[in-house]
Design a protein that fits this description.
The complex is a heterodimer. Chain A is of the alpha/beta class. Chain A has two domains: 5-76, Methionine synthase domain (Methyltransferase, Methionine Synthase (B12-binding Domains), Chain A, domain 1, Orthogonal Bundle), CATH 1.10.1240; 88-206, Cobalamin-binding domain (Rossmann fold). Chain A has helices at residues 5-10, 14-26, 31-50, 56-73, 101-112, 126-136, 150-163, 181-187, 196-206; strands at residues 88-93, 116-119, 140-144, 171-175, 191-192. Chain A has a five-stranded parallel sheet, sandwiched between helices. In chain A, 48% of the residues are buried. Chain B has a domain at 16-84 and 212-421: Alpha-Beta Barrel (TIM Barrel). Chain B has helices spanning 16-27, 44-48, 53-58, 60-74, 88-93, 125-130, 132-144, 170-175, 179-209, 223-231, 233-243, 245-270, 289-309, 326-329, 346-353, 365-370, 373-387, 408-421; strands spanning 99-100, 113-114, 218-219, 274-279, 313-321, 340-343, 359-363, 393-397. In chain B, the strands form three sheets. Chain B has a four-stranded parallel sheet, covered by helices on one side. Chain B has a two-stranded antiparallel sheet with strand order 1-2. A two-stranded parallel ribbon of chain B has the order 7-8. The longest helix of chain B is centred in the middle third of the chain and has 31 residues, at 179-209. Classes of the chains: A alpha/beta, B alpha/beta. The A-B interface holds A 12, 14, 54-58, 60-61, 64, 95-101, 104, 123, 147-149, 151-152, 177-178, 180, 182-183, 186, 195 and B 100, 106-107, 109-111, 113, 115-116, 234-235, 238-239, 241-243, 285-288, 291, 320, 365-367, 369-371, 399-400, 403-406.
C-alpha cells in the first residue's frame, strides 16, 4: 500500500515524506500527482495553522519539507508543465521597515495556495509597488509592516497607487504586528488580515476562487 | 511633526525618591500614592522636540538636550531608556552589518532595526558549543561588522599562543593583512564610543539631579532569543527546533550564565538595579505552548529567578500576545518582576497573575498614532478603574512604549489622565 504523502507531510515527518516521494517517483508515478499530494498536505498544514494547532515553526518546517520534495520531483517534470496560477499578487514590506518574517510567511502561504507572488522585499518605496502593479497587472496588493512607522508608509503607498490611477484596478490588503481595523481605515486599504491564512482567504475571495 | 508647544511640566511635581518609591510600590503590589507612569518611549522623546530619528542618533548633545526637555515636560516617574538611542557615528565607523538605521541606510525618521540574518550557520553548533569564545571572535564578529573581518583569519583561540609561541604571536597584529588597519579603525571608533558614553553618563547625572530616576541600568537578553534571533535568525532557528533540537537546547543552556552576567555587570556599573529584557520569540503565535515550555521558558525563568535573587528588578518586555503564557509567569515570585505587556487579555491577567505581577502597559500604538486625546484618556481611565483596586498598575504604551509617530497631544493626554484619575 502506498504510504500517504498528504498526511506524512501534514504531520511534518520529513524523512518519511521524502522517502515516499522518492519511492513513488522511482515506481514511475506521474511527478505532478506527487506534487499535488504535497500541495494537499500543505493545505492541511495551513488549516492547522488557522486552527491554532500549528505555529510559525511548523509552517517554516513544512515549507522546508515541501521544498525538498519539489527539488526531488522537479527534474522529472515535463518541461512545459506549469500549474496555472490562481492569480497574481504584488507583495512587500513597506518603506522604512526591514522586517520580513510576517511578509515571508504570507508570501509562502499564498505561493503554496497557488498564487503567483511578486515579492518586492523589504523597505519598499511606494513607487516600486506602483511600477510592479503596472508591469504585472496583478489585481491584488499586499502591504506588510511590523513597526508603527508603517501606518504612514502604507497610507502613502495606497495614495501613490491612487495617483497612478490604479486604485480601482487593485484590492489592497494590509497586515503585521501593529496593524488592525483602525489602521486599515487610516491607510485606506480594502482589508486587514490577522494572519497568513486570512491573507490567503482574502486573495481567494478577491479572485473569485472561493 | 511640529515640535511641542508647551514647556510647563504636566501634572504635579515630585522628587527622585518619591518617584522611585511609587514605581517599586506598584511593582511589589502595594498601593502607591498615585498610579506611576513610566515609559520606554525610545524615539518619541526626540521626535516630540522636533529632532528627526537620524539627528537623534548622530548628535549626542542635541539628543541629550531634548531628552531633558521632554522628560521635564512629560513629568513621568521614570526617565525613558536613553541607552536605546544608539550612536550612529560609531555604528557607521565600524561598518556594522547587523543593523540598519536612519541617517545611514534608512530614511531619516525610520527606526533603527536589527538585521535578522544567520550569523551562525546550521552546521556550526558543534563548533559553537565546543568553544563559544573562539566562535564569537572568529565567526560572529566578522559577520556582524566589517571592521572585524580580519579576525576570521585567527586560529581557534586556545591554540593562539602558548609556551614558545607566546612572544611570536605579536607579529599577527602587525603582519597579517588588514590587522593594522583594523586596529587603527577600532581605536578611532573606540574614541567615538567613549564620547557617546560620556554624553550618556552626563545625561544620567542631569536627569538624576532633575529628580528623574532612569528607567533601567542596562539590558540583557534571554538565552532562547539570543540564539534564535540574534545568532540563527527566525528561519534557521525554527528548522533547528525540529532538525537538531538537542543542540538548540545545549546552546541555550550554554548562554544562560552569560545572560545573567550581562545583567549583573550592567547593574553594578550603573548602580541602577532595574534591568530590561526585550523578549521576542516567546509570544503566542511565534511558537506552540509545547515549544514554549520546551525551548523558551526554562532559560527565561532561570534568568528571572537569578536576577531577583541578586536584588535586581528584571523588566521583561512581553512583546506580542502573552495570554496563553500567563500560567507560566505565575510560577515567578510575587512582586519582584516588573513585566511590561503589549497585548494580553486583562481579565485573564488579573485572574492568573493578579497576585504575582503588576500590570505595566498597554495604551495601543494604533490609538496613540491615529486616535484622539479623548479616546486616549478614556483608555487610561479604564486601565486605572480595572487595576486600581489592587494598585498593581504602571501606565505606558504597549509594544515599544510610545511610538515615535505618536501624536504629541495623545501622549500628553495619556500623561494627564494618570495625574487626573490615578491618585489613590
Amino acid at each position: 500500500m502506498a504510504k500517504d504523502l498528504v498526511n506524512t507531510l501534514a504531520d511534518l515527518k520529513e524523512k518519511e515524506a521524502l522517502k515516499i516521494a522518492e519511492d513513488r517517483l522511482s515506481a514511475g508515478e506521474e511527478p505532478l500527482k506527487i506534487l499535488e499530494d504535497a500541495r494537499k498536505g500543505m493545505e492541511i498544514v495551513g488549516k492547522r495553522f488557522a486552527d491554532g494547532e500549528y505555529f510559525i515553526p511548523e509552517l517554516v518546517y513544512s515549507g522546508e519539507i515541501l521544498k525538498r520534495i519539489t527539488e526531488t520531483v522537479k527534474p522529472k517534470l515535463a518541461k512545459a508543465t506549469k500549474i496555472k496560477p490562481q492569480g497574481k499578487v504584488v507583495f512587500g514590506t513597506v518603506a522604512g521597515d526591514i522586517h520580513d518574517i510576517g511578509k515571508d510567511i504570507v508570501v509562502f502561504m499564498l505561493d503554496v495556495n497557488g498564487f503567483e507572488v511578486y515579492d518586492l522585499g523589504v523597505d519598499v518605496p511606494a513607487q516600486k509597488f506602483v511600477e510592479k502593479i503596472k508591469e504585472s497587472g496583478a489585481p491584488i496588493v499586499g502591504l506588510s509592516g511590523f513597526l508603527t512607522l508603517t501606518y504612514d508608509s502604507m497610507k502613502q503607498t495606497i495614495e501613490a497607487i491612487k495617483v497612478a490611477d490604479l486604485r480601482d484596478k487593485v484590492k489592497v490588503m494590509i497586515g503585521g504586528g501593529q496593524i488592525d481595523e483602525e489602521i486599515r481605515k487610516y491607510a485606506g486599504a480594502d482589508a486587514y488580515g490577522k494572519d497568513a491564512m486570512a491573507a490567503v482567504n482574502l486573495a481567494k475571495k478577491w479572485t473569485g476562487k472561493e | 511633526m511640529s515640535p511641542r508647544k508647551g514647556t510647563k511640566p504636566i501634572g504635579t511635581p515630585s522628587t527622585y525618591e518619591a518617584r522611585e518609591k511609587r514605581f517599586y510600590d506598584a511593582v511589589s503590589l502595594t498601593k502607591p500614592d498615585r498610579v506611576p507612569i513610566a515609559s520606554f518611549a525610545v524615539m518619541f522623546l526626540t521626535r516630540y522636540s522636533g529632532l528627526t530619528n537620524a539627528e537623534a542618533m548622530y548628535d549626542y548633545d542635541k539628543m541629550a538636550k531634548v531628552w531633558k526637555q521632554s522628560t521635564q515636560r512629560l513629568n513621568w516617574d521614570m526617565a525613558p531608556l536613553h541607552q536605546s538611542m544608539f550612536p550612529g557615528p560609531v555604528m557607521e565607523m565600524m561598518g556594522l552589518k547587523a543593523f540598519k538605521w536612519p541617517g545611514y541606510n534608512l530614511a531619516d525618521n525610520a527606526l533603527y532595526q536589527y538585521v535578522e540574518n544567520e550569523y551562525m550557520m546550521a552546521d556550526e553548533y558543534d563548533e559553537f558549543l565546543a568553544d563559544p569564545g573562539s566562535f564569537t571572535i572568529r565567526k560572529v564578529l566578522p559577520r556582524m561588522a566589517s571592521v572585524f573581518e580580519p579576525l576570521a583569519i585567527l586560529p581557534p583561540l586556545p591554540f593562539f599562543a602558548f609556551g614558545y609561541s607566546v612572544f611570536t604571536v605579536v607579529s599577527t597584529f602587525a603582519g597579517i593583512p588588514g590587522f593594522p588597519q583594523m586596529m587603527e579603525t577600532l581605536i578611532k571608533t573606540g574614541r567615538e564610543m567613549n564620547r557617546y558614553n560620556a554624553a550618556q553618563a552626563q545625561l544620567v547625572k542631569d536627569l538624576t539631579s532633575m529628580g528623574y530616576p532612569c528607567i533601567t541600568g542596562g539590558f540583557t537578553f534571554t538565552a532562547c532569543d539570543w540564539l534564535c534571533v540574534l545568532l540563527r535568525g527566525l528561519k534557521g532557528a525554527m528548522l533547528d527546533m525540529f532538525q537538531q533540537p538537542d543542540k538548540v537546547k545545549a546552546a541555550i543552556e550554554l548562554l544562560v550564565p552569560g545572560t545573567i552576567g550581562l545583567a549583573v555587570a550592567a547593574a553594578q556599573m550603573t548602580g541602577n538595579r532595574r534591568i530590561m529584557i526585550p523578549l521576542w520569540r516567546g509570544a503566542a503565535g511565534f511558537m506552540s505552548d509545547k515549544h514554549f515550555a520546551e525551548f523558551y521558558w526554562p532559560s527565561l525563568k532561570q534568568l528571572l529567578l537569578a536576577l531577583v535573587e541578586q536584588g535586581i528588578t528584571p523588566m521583561p518586555w512581553f512583546e506580542g500576545d502573552y495570554t496563553p503564557r500567563l500560567k507560566y509567569l505565575a510560577e515567578l515570585p510575587p512582586g519582584k518582576v516588573a513585566g511590561h505587556f503589549d497585548r494580553v487579555d486583562k481579565k485573564k491577567f488579573k485572574e492568573i497573575l493578579g497576585n504575582v505581577m503588576c500590570f505595566w502597559g498597554d495604551v495601543p500604538p494604533q490609538l496613540l498614532v491615529t486616535g484622539t486625546p479623548e479616546k486616549v484618556k478614556d483608555y487610561v481611565k479604564e486601565l486605572i478603574d480595572f487595576f486600581g483596586d489592587t494598585g498593581g498598575l504602571i501606565v505606558d504604551g504597549a509594544v515599544e512604549g510610545i511610538p515615535a509617530e505618536a501624536k504629541p497631544e495623545n501622549v500628553e493626554a495619556m500623561t494627564e489622565a494618570v495625574f487626573e484619575y490615578g491618585v489613590y
